[in-house]
Design a protein that fits this description.
Number of domains: 2
CATH topology of the largest domain: Rossmann fold
Strand order of the largest sheet: 2-3-1-4-8-7-5-6
CATH class of the largest domain: Alpha Beta
CATH architecture of the largest domain: 3-Layer(aba) Sandwich
Distance between the termini: 70 Å
Oligomer: single chain
Radius of gyration: 24 Å
Number of helices: 8
Protein backbone atom coordinates (compact mmCIF):
# COMPACT_ATOMS: atom_id res chain seq x y z
CA UNK A 1 0.00 0.00 0.00
CA UNK A 2 1.40 3.39 -1.01
CA UNK A 3 1.19 6.06 1.65
CA UNK A 4 -0.42 9.32 0.70
CA UNK A 5 1.69 12.43 0.45
CA UNK A 6 4.47 13.85 -1.69
CA UNK A 7 6.87 11.25 -3.07
CA UNK A 8 10.56 11.95 -2.67
CA UNK A 9 12.45 11.58 -5.94
CA UNK A 10 16.17 10.84 -5.82
CA UNK A 11 18.26 13.61 -7.31
CA UNK A 12 20.15 12.70 -10.49
CA UNK A 13 23.78 11.66 -10.20
CA UNK A 14 26.32 14.44 -10.80
CA UNK A 15 27.21 15.04 -14.43
CA UNK A 16 30.76 14.79 -15.72
CA UNK A 17 32.51 15.07 -19.05
CA UNK A 18 35.80 13.67 -20.28
CA UNK A 19 37.81 15.21 -23.08
CA UNK A 20 39.35 12.65 -25.43
CA UNK A 21 41.72 12.76 -28.37
CA UNK A 22 39.77 12.30 -31.62
CA UNK A 23 40.12 8.70 -32.68
CA UNK A 24 40.42 7.31 -29.14
CA UNK A 25 36.75 7.66 -28.19
CA UNK A 26 35.97 3.93 -28.22
CA UNK A 27 38.97 3.07 -26.05
CA UNK A 28 38.26 5.92 -23.62
CA UNK A 29 34.60 4.82 -23.38
CA UNK A 30 35.70 1.28 -22.59
CA UNK A 31 38.02 2.46 -19.82
CA UNK A 32 35.33 4.76 -18.45
CA UNK A 33 32.76 1.95 -18.38
CA UNK A 34 35.19 -0.27 -16.50
CA UNK A 35 35.86 2.45 -13.95
CA UNK A 36 32.36 3.71 -13.19
CA UNK A 37 30.66 0.29 -13.36
CA UNK A 38 27.14 0.26 -11.96
CA UNK A 39 27.70 3.64 -10.24
CA UNK A 40 27.46 5.55 -13.50
CA UNK A 41 25.85 5.84 -16.90
CA UNK A 42 27.42 7.06 -20.13
CA UNK A 43 25.10 9.49 -21.93
CA UNK A 44 24.52 9.77 -25.69
CA UNK A 45 27.38 11.45 -27.53
CA UNK A 46 27.04 15.13 -28.42
CA UNK A 47 30.55 16.01 -29.60
CA UNK A 48 33.21 13.71 -31.04
CA UNK A 49 35.97 14.58 -28.60
CA UNK A 50 33.82 14.52 -25.45
CA UNK A 51 32.05 11.82 -23.45
CA UNK A 52 29.29 12.92 -21.06
CA UNK A 53 28.24 10.67 -18.17
CA UNK A 54 26.59 10.62 -14.76
CA UNK A 55 28.39 9.12 -11.78
CA UNK A 56 27.43 8.61 -8.13
CA UNK A 57 30.84 7.41 -6.98
CA UNK A 58 33.65 9.41 -5.43
CA UNK A 59 35.02 11.93 -7.96
CA UNK A 60 38.58 11.20 -6.84
CA UNK A 61 38.25 7.82 -8.55
CA UNK A 62 37.89 9.54 -11.93
CA UNK A 63 41.45 10.85 -11.61
CA UNK A 64 42.64 7.29 -12.34
CA UNK A 65 41.53 7.54 -15.97
CA UNK A 66 44.53 7.21 -18.29
CA UNK A 67 43.17 7.29 -21.87
CA UNK A 68 41.46 10.69 -21.56
CA UNK A 69 42.91 14.18 -21.75
CA UNK A 70 40.93 15.67 -18.86
CA UNK A 71 37.78 15.13 -16.79
CA UNK A 72 35.33 17.87 -15.75
CA UNK A 73 32.45 18.26 -13.32
CA UNK A 74 29.50 19.73 -15.23
CA UNK A 75 27.13 22.24 -13.64
CA UNK A 76 23.99 23.29 -15.50
CA UNK A 77 22.47 26.70 -14.82
CA UNK A 78 18.98 27.54 -16.16
CA UNK A 79 19.97 31.10 -17.03
CA UNK A 80 19.63 33.16 -20.22
CA UNK A 81 23.17 34.59 -20.20
CA UNK A 82 26.49 34.16 -18.28
CA UNK A 83 25.95 37.41 -16.36
CA UNK A 84 23.49 35.52 -14.16
CA UNK A 85 26.37 33.43 -12.78
CA UNK A 86 27.21 36.48 -10.67
CA UNK A 87 23.90 36.13 -8.83
CA UNK A 88 24.14 34.86 -5.25
CA UNK A 89 22.46 31.49 -5.82
CA UNK A 90 24.43 30.50 -8.92
CA UNK A 91 27.77 31.86 -7.74
CA UNK A 92 27.36 29.98 -4.45
CA UNK A 93 26.73 26.74 -6.35
CA UNK A 94 29.77 27.39 -8.52
CA UNK A 95 31.99 28.04 -5.51
CA UNK A 96 30.71 24.93 -3.72
CA UNK A 97 31.81 22.83 -6.70
CA UNK A 98 35.21 24.55 -6.82
CA UNK A 99 35.69 23.86 -3.10
CA UNK A 100 34.76 20.21 -3.63
CA UNK A 101 37.33 19.81 -6.42
CA UNK A 102 40.11 21.56 -4.50
CA UNK A 103 39.47 19.16 -1.60
CA UNK A 104 40.44 16.25 -3.88
CA UNK A 105 44.06 17.42 -3.85
CA UNK A 106 46.69 18.37 -1.26
CA UNK A 107 46.57 21.89 0.10
CA UNK A 108 48.44 24.25 -2.18
CA UNK A 109 47.84 22.24 -5.35
CA UNK A 110 45.97 25.20 -6.88
CA UNK A 111 47.64 28.58 -7.27
CA UNK A 112 46.02 30.06 -10.39
CA UNK A 113 42.72 29.96 -12.26
CA UNK A 114 41.34 30.90 -15.65
CA UNK A 115 38.00 30.98 -17.43
CA UNK A 116 37.71 29.30 -20.80
CA UNK A 117 34.83 30.76 -22.78
CA UNK A 118 33.94 32.50 -26.01
CA UNK A 119 34.34 36.19 -25.20
CA UNK A 120 36.42 35.46 -22.10
CA UNK A 121 37.82 39.02 -22.31
CA UNK A 122 34.35 40.60 -22.10
CA UNK A 123 33.30 42.77 -19.16
CA UNK A 124 31.01 40.01 -17.83
CA UNK A 125 33.75 37.40 -17.69
CA UNK A 126 36.25 39.92 -16.34
CA UNK A 127 33.89 40.62 -13.45
CA UNK A 128 33.27 36.90 -12.94
CA UNK A 129 37.05 36.41 -12.83
CA UNK A 130 37.40 39.15 -10.23
CA UNK A 131 34.74 37.52 -8.04
CA UNK A 132 36.34 34.09 -8.43
CA UNK A 133 39.73 35.51 -7.52
CA UNK A 134 38.37 37.08 -4.34
CA UNK A 135 36.43 33.95 -3.36
CA UNK A 136 39.20 31.44 -4.06
CA UNK A 137 42.32 33.46 -3.27
CA UNK A 138 43.81 32.25 -6.55
CA UNK A 139 45.63 34.43 -9.07
CA UNK A 140 44.16 34.88 -12.55
CA UNK A 141 46.30 33.37 -15.33
CA UNK A 142 44.78 33.79 -18.80
CA UNK A 143 46.89 31.22 -20.68
CA UNK A 144 47.53 28.24 -18.39
CA UNK A 145 46.23 27.73 -14.87
CA UNK A 146 45.64 25.10 -12.20
CA UNK A 147 41.90 25.68 -11.87
CA UNK A 148 40.15 25.70 -15.23
CA UNK A 149 36.49 26.67 -15.51
CA UNK A 150 34.93 26.45 -18.97
CA UNK A 151 31.66 28.31 -19.54
CA UNK A 152 29.51 27.59 -22.59
CA UNK A 153 25.86 27.38 -23.70
CA UNK A 154 24.08 24.25 -22.54
CA UNK A 155 24.39 21.35 -24.95
CA UNK A 156 21.05 19.73 -24.08
CA UNK A 157 17.52 20.72 -25.05
CA UNK A 158 17.18 22.33 -21.63
CA UNK A 159 19.28 25.25 -22.88
CA UNK A 160 20.76 27.54 -20.27
CA UNK A 161 24.50 27.64 -19.62
CA UNK A 162 27.07 25.20 -18.32
CA UNK A 163 30.19 25.54 -16.21
CA UNK A 164 32.70 22.71 -16.59
CA UNK A 165 35.33 22.57 -13.83
CA UNK A 166 38.41 20.44 -14.43
CA UNK A 167 38.97 17.93 -11.63
CA UNK A 168 42.77 18.19 -11.68
CA UNK A 169 45.30 21.05 -11.57
CA UNK A 170 46.74 19.84 -14.86
CA UNK A 171 45.21 17.71 -17.62
CA UNK A 172 45.32 13.99 -16.84
CA UNK A 173 47.37 13.63 -20.02
CA UNK A 174 50.22 15.40 -18.18
CA UNK A 175 52.05 12.52 -16.48
CA UNK A 176 53.67 13.25 -13.12
CA UNK A 177 56.29 10.55 -13.69
CA UNK A 178 57.75 12.31 -16.77
CA UNK A 179 60.79 13.89 -15.13
CA UNK A 180 63.22 13.26 -18.02
CA UNK A 181 61.56 14.30 -21.26
CA UNK A 182 62.86 13.45 -24.71
CA UNK A 183 62.19 15.04 -28.08
CA UNK A 184 59.49 13.11 -29.89
CA UNK A 185 58.43 11.19 -26.76
CA UNK A 186 55.05 9.49 -27.08
CA UNK A 187 52.02 11.14 -25.50
CA UNK A 188 51.08 9.25 -22.32
CA UNK A 189 47.37 9.17 -23.17
CA UNK A 190 48.06 7.60 -26.58
CA UNK A 191 50.42 5.10 -24.96
CA UNK A 192 47.72 4.10 -22.47
CA UNK A 193 45.30 3.58 -25.37
CA UNK A 194 47.83 1.33 -27.09
CA UNK A 195 48.09 -0.75 -23.91
CA UNK A 196 44.32 -1.20 -23.68
CA UNK A 197 44.22 -2.13 -27.38
CA UNK A 198 46.73 -4.94 -26.75
CA UNK A 199 45.05 -5.92 -23.45
CA UNK A 200 47.93 -7.99 -22.00
CA UNK A 201 47.09 -10.75 -19.53
CA UNK A 202 49.02 -11.20 -16.25
CA UNK A 203 50.78 -14.36 -17.51
CA UNK A 204 52.03 -12.78 -20.75
CA UNK A 205 55.52 -11.60 -21.67
CA UNK A 206 55.73 -8.05 -23.04
CA UNK A 207 58.45 -6.30 -25.06
CA UNK A 208 58.76 -2.65 -26.07
CA UNK A 209 61.09 -2.32 -29.06
CA UNK A 210 62.86 1.05 -29.38
CA UNK A 211 61.51 1.94 -25.94
CA UNK A 212 62.89 5.50 -25.85
CA UNK A 213 62.28 7.35 -22.59
CA UNK A 214 59.93 4.65 -21.31
CA UNK A 215 56.41 5.94 -21.93
CA UNK A 216 54.92 2.66 -23.15
CA UNK A 217 56.76 0.68 -20.48
CA UNK A 218 55.43 2.86 -17.68
CA UNK A 219 51.88 2.90 -18.99
CA UNK A 220 51.98 -0.89 -19.33
CA UNK A 221 53.24 -1.32 -15.76
CA UNK A 222 50.57 1.05 -14.43
CA UNK A 223 47.87 -0.79 -16.40
CA UNK A 224 48.62 -4.10 -14.71
CA UNK A 225 51.24 -6.69 -13.90
CA UNK A 226 52.56 -9.06 -16.55
CA UNK A 227 54.96 -12.00 -16.34
CA UNK A 228 57.80 -10.04 -17.95
CA UNK A 229 58.14 -6.43 -19.13
CA UNK A 230 61.24 -5.54 -21.15
CA UNK A 231 62.29 -2.32 -22.86
CA UNK A 232 64.92 -2.60 -25.61
CA UNK A 233 66.72 0.55 -26.78
CA UNK A 234 70.10 1.20 -28.46
CA UNK A 235 70.47 4.87 -27.43
CA UNK A 236 72.20 5.12 -24.00
CA UNK A 237 70.78 8.60 -23.39
CA UNK A 238 67.25 7.33 -23.97
CA UNK A 239 67.89 4.40 -21.62
CA UNK A 240 69.05 6.76 -18.89
CA UNK A 241 65.98 8.96 -19.32
CA UNK A 242 63.78 5.87 -19.21
CA UNK A 243 65.42 4.82 -15.94
CA UNK A 244 64.73 8.23 -14.43
CA UNK A 245 61.08 8.16 -15.49
CA UNK A 246 60.60 4.56 -14.34
CA UNK A 247 62.15 5.41 -10.96
CA UNK A 248 59.90 8.49 -10.66
CA UNK A 249 56.91 6.21 -11.23
CA UNK A 250 58.20 3.76 -8.59
CA UNK A 251 58.26 0.90 -11.10
CA UNK A 252 61.94 -0.03 -11.19
CA UNK A 253 61.25 -3.56 -9.90
CA UNK A 254 58.69 -4.25 -12.61
CA UNK A 255 60.51 -3.06 -15.74
CA UNK A 256 63.74 -4.46 -17.22
CA UNK A 257 65.77 -2.32 -19.61
CA UNK A 258 68.28 -3.72 -22.05
CA UNK A 259 70.54 -2.04 -24.59
CA UNK A 260 69.78 -3.68 -27.92
CA UNK A 261 69.89 -2.84 -31.60
CA UNK A 262 66.57 -3.73 -33.20
CA UNK A 263 68.48 -4.77 -36.34
CA UNK A 264 70.40 -7.43 -34.36
CA UNK A 265 68.09 -8.54 -31.52
CA UNK A 266 69.81 -10.13 -28.53
CA UNK A 267 66.72 -11.66 -26.92
CA UNK A 268 65.24 -15.14 -26.96
CA UNK A 269 63.18 -15.92 -30.06
CA UNK A 270 59.49 -16.76 -29.95
CA UNK A 271 59.01 -15.66 -26.35
CA UNK A 272 56.87 -12.51 -26.31
CA UNK A 273 53.07 -12.41 -26.34
CA UNK A 274 52.70 -8.64 -26.72
CA UNK A 275 55.08 -6.20 -28.42
CA UNK A 276 54.94 -2.41 -28.74
CA UNK A 277 56.81 0.03 -30.95
CA UNK A 278 56.61 3.80 -31.35
CA UNK A 279 58.34 4.06 -34.71
CA UNK A 280 60.28 7.24 -35.62
CA UNK A 281 58.15 9.40 -37.88
CA UNK A 282 61.03 11.05 -39.74
CA UNK A 283 60.19 14.47 -38.28
CA UNK A 284 61.57 15.09 -34.79
CA UNK A 285 63.20 11.66 -34.74
CA UNK A 286 64.73 9.72 -37.63
CA UNK A 287 64.61 10.53 -41.33
CA UNK A 288 62.69 9.31 -44.36
CA UNK A 289 65.74 7.47 -45.72
CA UNK A 290 66.51 5.80 -42.39
CA UNK A 291 62.90 4.76 -41.94
CA UNK A 292 62.81 3.10 -45.36
CA UNK A 293 65.38 0.65 -44.04
CA UNK A 294 64.15 0.52 -40.42
CA UNK A 295 60.43 -0.19 -40.83
CA UNK A 296 60.73 -3.59 -42.59
CA UNK A 297 63.49 -4.59 -40.15
CA UNK A 298 61.35 -3.80 -37.11
CA UNK A 299 58.48 -5.91 -38.44
CA UNK A 300 60.79 -8.86 -39.07
CA UNK A 301 62.56 -8.48 -35.72
CA UNK A 302 59.21 -8.38 -33.93
CA UNK A 303 58.13 -11.51 -35.81
CA UNK A 304 61.30 -13.34 -34.70
CA UNK A 305 60.76 -12.46 -31.04
CA UNK A 306 56.99 -13.07 -30.96
CA UNK A 307 55.09 -16.24 -30.24
CA UNK A 308 52.57 -17.39 -32.88
CA UNK A 309 49.38 -15.40 -32.27
CA UNK A 310 51.21 -12.61 -30.44
CA UNK A 311 49.96 -9.01 -30.72
CA UNK A 312 52.10 -6.16 -32.02
CA UNK A 313 50.86 -2.60 -31.47
CA UNK A 314 52.65 0.07 -33.50
CA UNK A 315 52.12 3.81 -33.89
CA UNK A 316 53.52 5.82 -36.79
CA UNK A 317 52.84 8.89 -38.86
CA UNK A 318 54.62 7.49 -41.92
CA UNK A 319 51.49 5.65 -43.02
CA UNK A 320 52.40 4.80 -46.62
CA UNK A 321 55.87 3.56 -45.72
CA UNK A 322 54.57 1.42 -42.89
CA UNK A 323 51.81 -0.18 -44.95
CA UNK A 324 54.24 -0.86 -47.81
CA UNK A 325 56.65 -2.42 -45.30
CA UNK A 326 53.86 -4.49 -43.80
CA UNK A 327 52.85 -5.79 -47.23
CA UNK A 328 56.48 -6.65 -47.99
CA UNK A 329 56.75 -8.93 -44.94
CA UNK A 330 54.39 -11.43 -46.58
CA UNK A 331 52.39 -13.51 -44.14
CA UNK A 332 54.25 -12.59 -40.93
CA UNK A 333 51.53 -10.28 -39.61
CA UNK A 334 47.82 -9.77 -40.12
CA UNK A 335 46.09 -6.46 -39.35
CA UNK A 336 43.38 -6.68 -36.69
CA UNK A 337 42.60 -3.00 -36.09
CA UNK A 338 43.69 0.48 -37.19
CA UNK A 339 42.98 3.67 -35.23
CA UNK A 340 43.55 7.11 -36.70
CA UNK A 341 44.46 9.57 -33.95
CA UNK A 342 44.42 13.38 -34.14
CA UNK A 343 46.94 15.06 -31.85
CA UNK A 344 48.94 18.26 -32.08
CA UNK A 345 48.10 18.82 -35.75
CA UNK A 346 49.36 15.33 -36.69
CA UNK A 347 47.34 12.28 -37.71
CA UNK A 348 49.30 9.19 -36.68
CA UNK A 349 47.77 5.73 -36.84
CA UNK A 350 47.86 2.91 -34.33
CA UNK A 351 48.00 -0.60 -35.77
CA UNK A 352 47.07 -3.77 -33.91
CA UNK A 353 48.73 -6.71 -35.68
CA UNK A 354 48.61 -10.45 -34.97
CA UNK A 355 51.56 -12.78 -35.57
CA UNK A 356 50.58 -15.39 -38.09
CA UNK A 357 51.46 -19.03 -37.44
CA UNK A 358 54.73 -20.04 -39.03
Amino acid sequence: MVKAGRQHLASPAPAYEVEVLPGLGSIASSELEDLIGTDGTILPAIREAEIRFRYRGQPAGLLRLRTVVAVYLVLHFPIPRPKALLGHEHFTALMAAVTQIRALHPQGAFHTFRIGAAGADSAVFQRLGEELGRATGLAYAPDEADLLIRVRPGVSQAGGWEALIRLSPRPLATRAWRVADMEGALNGTIAAAMIRLANPAPAEHVLNLMSGSGTLLIEQALHGRVAQLVGAEINPDALERARQNINAAGLQRRVALTRMDAVHPALARGVFDVLYADLPWGQLVGSADENTVLYPVILRTAAELARPGARLVIITHAIRLFEESLAATGDLWETRAVLRVFQGGLHPRIYLLRRCAS
